[in-house]
Design a protein that fits this description.
The complex is a heterodimer. Chain A is an alpha+beta fold. Chain A is built from 18 helices and 15 strands. In chain A, the strands form five sheets. In chain A, strands 1-2-5-4-3 form a five-stranded mixed sheet. A three-stranded antiparallel sheet of chain A has the order 8-9-10, with no helix packed on it. In chain A, strands 13-14-15 form a three-stranded antiparallel sheet. Classes of the chains: A alpha+beta, B mainly alpha.
Chain lengths: ~525, ~325
């Protein structure tokens, strides 16, 4: 059994005494200030002490003369930040991909947007910016001027010889298996996949940069637009982060109302994916059934927030709208209707022979690989890694609500889908419990518009996994830096690993079992 | 002297026009049925209950721009869909629909073999049409068509021999007319296997691997537009009607039915169409309640299960017909 009681701070203190500076209580459990490449030693010490050490995100930020590179690390029982700085005129830092393989994408993003060179990263190159973006222009630096960017004309793609063209299948940016534009160049040998090359960034909207020029209140609605499906979790995470800097205490009723909204969001997101998986394996009947039963949940979101998709319910200091007592019977009856249908769906996902044939032993992600690649959410839980922010670091009212953490150990597509299937039921339980135990009192407190200088990190459990926010304020009404790391960004490496050696036909079910959301990934 | 009856039989009934209308009707029935099973309404605008929707779709496709890709093998790309369609309609003409086949004199002892061969050619033309489009999705889709149908063609022929053996003839007309007791009762195991094999041969779920849009986009149809696409779709629909009609002729007693008086052509056609629709409903139902299998799963199922079962079925039939049934009947 993994030891969950490791005191990671103690480990670092004993191993790297006097070399690093530990600031307790900042940016998670502690911020560890390192320099001269000591971030690698710190990480090594953490990985050796705790097998569940994984990278949550790498935040790059412009600190004036220097560029800050913050490694946000989660361990089995703590969340820490390793701070490093590099000079702006020579922004070079050693890679950590050899210690934590899952950090490759994170490093590439920082390299793209801030120009930090990660020495030793195995796959340098563009990740989010277009190929014809000019060299030496980095959008997230403060001296960046958008109207001075001159794109070079797009390069003609080299014409491939016939024998190459027939074995290289391009999935995306427009493809029926993907609902959003991303590109995966898949090389096949007959029907077997031998290589997958990803290219994300097709719908990069620069929301992180745009939020720096808007007030905190405007940003709540901006970050909500990062993802259409899990919108309220983005807004919730952002306001929680701001509340941490403001040290605002949210009234208990608001916490419960937030939980109701978040779980409704999870419900409709999971139902969407469970149905979508049916579509990907040619089971259209299943798809139609799930989406039919998802519709009442959408109605509930409209009932509780006034909007069908973008709930716009979260605000700094609480929620914007109270739940009327007269609406509660409707919520309860809708949920119990859905609960009645669940055994049928569970039976289909567990026992239906053609589903089993297509999902069992497809895209197997072993526990070791899941830990190495730092996957999050149902993907990790399907591989036997029990991480769920709602349990590990309860936010809002989750600490007071009883619910089960669903973990399957098979690690295949079937397990990942069944994690979601079981979580649907848990979500219904959580909503019913929250409504039954709804505290009375105010549903919001007034929060100041101007946020004092400070910084905070926050993690929440989105339907697709751990969602990470970092906000740095500078004493004005505008944030200095907002960093978002969405769950799909962490989960794509899992797909790249598991697709190799499998059939082309396994790509769609394997892929949809990650519940990919590329609008999230691109931001 | 021109034989107007013959021209009428070829062009109108039971020839081209009738087969075309039946195809469009079956397409509508399938779509409506699938929609109802999936809790949708299906086509409902064109005509009463949307019955004209397949025709409207066909005409719409004919009006669309017709593009031939620069790298395509142009001749094959252009003509393969048309020839495949023609061959499928031609094969259907051998089936006795109103008591006799379309060309009354064309039926001969052994036409069962001819139509099975024609289906093979039509499938091969479909493969060529995708291959000629020089598109990776088209190439993979076509390769899948070929792989799948190479596997299922042998069991299909073996299973088609079961009714031929009971009837003691390779002529479809004789097989149909000798079914005083329909062969579905005499050899139900062969009927079940035949339906499954047919499902694979017609590329319907759970065997619609060549058309898996989430894997190979449009499969062999990817590069097709306009009129050629319309004919590819129509070929597929005719294939489904042909498959159902073949089952009717081989196992359900063809156009012969229990109620029969007065105008014979009417009753023959009525029984034929009713039985055909029943088969279409069964196959559509099967395709609605299963997910699509993977090509390797389908192939291993074919060589390990369907082929031995088809041989066993033939052996069982031979044994029963030779020694058991003469004692009973």
């Amino acid at each position: 059994m993994p030891n969950n009681n490791i005191d990671i701070i103690n480990v670092i203190e004993t191993q790297l005494k006097d070399k690093v500076q530990i600031q307790l209580g900042q940016l998670g459990k502690a911020a560890i200030v390192t320099n001269n490449g000591l971030h690698r030693d710190t990480l090594k010490a953490m990985v050796e002490a705790d097998e569940k050490t994984a990278i949550s995100a790498i935040t790059g930020l412009d600190l004036g003369a220097n560029i800050g590179v913050y490694y946000h690390i989660r361990t089995s029982n703590a969340f820490l930040t390793i701070k490093a700085e590099v000079p702006k005129d020579n922004p070079k830092i050693q890679t950590i991909t050899d210690i934590i393989p899952g950090s490759a994408f994170h490093e590439m993003e920082v390299a793209d947007l801030l120009g930090v060179v990660f020495e030793g990263n195995p796959s340098p190159g563009r990740l989010v910016l277009p190929e014809n973006w000019p060299e030496g222009v980095y959008p997230l630096r403060k001296d960046f001027k958008a109207n001075e960017v001159k794109l070079s004309p797009p390069k003609e793609e080299a014409k491939l010889p016939d024998e190459v063209k027939l074995v290289k299948i391009i999935i995306g940016p427009q493809h029926p298996a993907l609902l959003e534009p991303e590109k995966f160049a898949v090389t096949v040998d007959g029907e077997t996949v031998t290589k997958v090359e990803p290219r994300i960034g097709y719908v990069h909207r620069g929301i992180e940069k745009a939020s720096e020029s808007r007030t905190y209140l405007q940003d709540v609605y901006l970050v909500e637009r990062i993802c259409g499906i899990c919108n309220s979790i983005h807004a919730c995470s952002f306001v929680e982060t701001v509340e941490k800097i403001l040290k605002t205490e949210v009234p208990p009723r608001a916490k419960y109302l937030r939980v109701v909204t978040l779980e409704l969001n999870r419900l409709h997101s999971h139902l969407l994916t469970l149905g979508h998986a049916g579509l990907e394996i040619g089971y259209e009947t299943l798809f139609q059934y799930f989406w039919r039963d998802r519709e009442p949940i959408m109605d509930l979101i409209e009932l509780t927030s006034g909007n069908r998709v973008y709930s716009s319910l979260m605000t700094v200091g609480g929620v914007r709208r109270d739940l009327k007592d007269s609406d509660i019977p409707k919520i309860k009856s809708t949920l119990s209707e859905l609960r009645k249908k669940l055994p049928f769906y569970r039976q289909i996902y567990e026992d239906e022979p053609s589903i089993k044939a297509r999902m069992k032993n497809v895209g197997v992600l072993k526990r070791e690989d899941a830990l190495k690649l730092c996957v999050v959410g149902p993907v990790a839980r399907g591989s036997g890694v029990d991480i769920d922010v709602r349990k590990d670091e309860p936010y809002e009212a989750y600490g007071e609500i009883p619910f089960k953490e669903i973990v399957y150990t098979q690690g295949d597509t079937w397990a990942r889908m069944n994690v979601r299937m079981d979580e649907v039921e848990e979500s219904i339980n959580i909503i019913e419990y929250a409504i039954d135990h709804l505290p009375t009192g105010p549903f919001r407190v007034k929060a100041p518009r101007v946020v004092p200088a400070g910084e905070a990190v926050n993690r929440v459990e989105a339907p697709r996994g751990e969602l990470f926010y970092y906000v740095k304020s500078n004493g004005t009404a505008f944030p200095d830096r907002v960093k978002v790391r969405t769950p799909t960004f962490s989960n794509i490496p899992a797909f790249l690993k598991t697709a190799i050696g499998e059939n082309i036909a396994d790509i769609p079910p394997n892929f949809v079992s990650l519940d990919p959301c590329f609008s999230c990934t691109d931001r | 002297m021109i034989d107007f009856t013959l021209i009428f039989r070829i062009l109108v009934f039971p020839g081209f026009t009738f087969i075309l209308l039946l195809t469009l009707f079956c397409d509508w029935l399938e779509r409506k049925l699938e929609a109802r099973i999936q809790n949708r309404v299906g086509p409902m605008v064109a005509g009463p209950a949307g019955i004209l929707q397949p025709l409207a779709d066909f005409i719409k496709l004919l009006t669309k721009e017709d593009i031939v890709p620069r790298d395509a093998k142009k001749t094959i790309f252009k003509f393969a869909p048309l020839v495949a369609f023609t061959i499928m309609v031609f094969a259907t003409c051998f089936l006795p629909i109103d008591g006799a086949s379309v060309l009354s004199a064309s039926g001969f002892n052994g036409d069962l073999i001819v139509i099975l061969a024609l289906v093979t050619i039509a499938n091969f033309l479909l493969f060529l049409s995708g291959w000629a489009s020089s598109n990776p999705y088209g190439a993979i889709g076509s390769a899948r068509v070929l792989t799948q149908f190479l596997g299922y063609d042998i069991p299909l022929s073996l299973l088609a021999l079961t009714p031929a053996f009971i009837a003691g003839s390779l002529s479809i007309a004789v097989i149909a007319s000798s079914q005083i007791i329909p062969f579905i009762i005499l050899a139900p195991w062969a009927f079940v296997l035949f339906i499954i094999t047919m499902q694979a041969e017609l590329e319907k779920d759970p065997f619609d691997i060549p058309h898996a849009d989430s894997e190979v986009v449009g499969g062999l149809e990817t590069e097709y537009t306009g009129g050629k696409l319309a004919f590819l779709h129509l070929t597929r629909d005719v294939q489904i009607v042909f498959g159902a009609a073949l089952v009717v002729e081989l196992f359900l007693g063809g156009p012969y039915g229990p109620v029969f008086f007065g105008f014979p052509v009417f009753w023959y056609s009525l029984w034929f169409v009713l039985k055909l629709l029943a088969i279409v409903i069964i196959t559509e139902y099967i395709s609605c309640v299963f997910a699509r299998l993977r090509i390797d799963q389908v192939l291993s199922a074919n060589w390990r299960v369907i082929l031995p079962a088809a041989i066993l079925s033939l052996m069982l039939t031979v044994a029963l017909v030779t020694w058991i049934y003469p004692m009973v009947v």
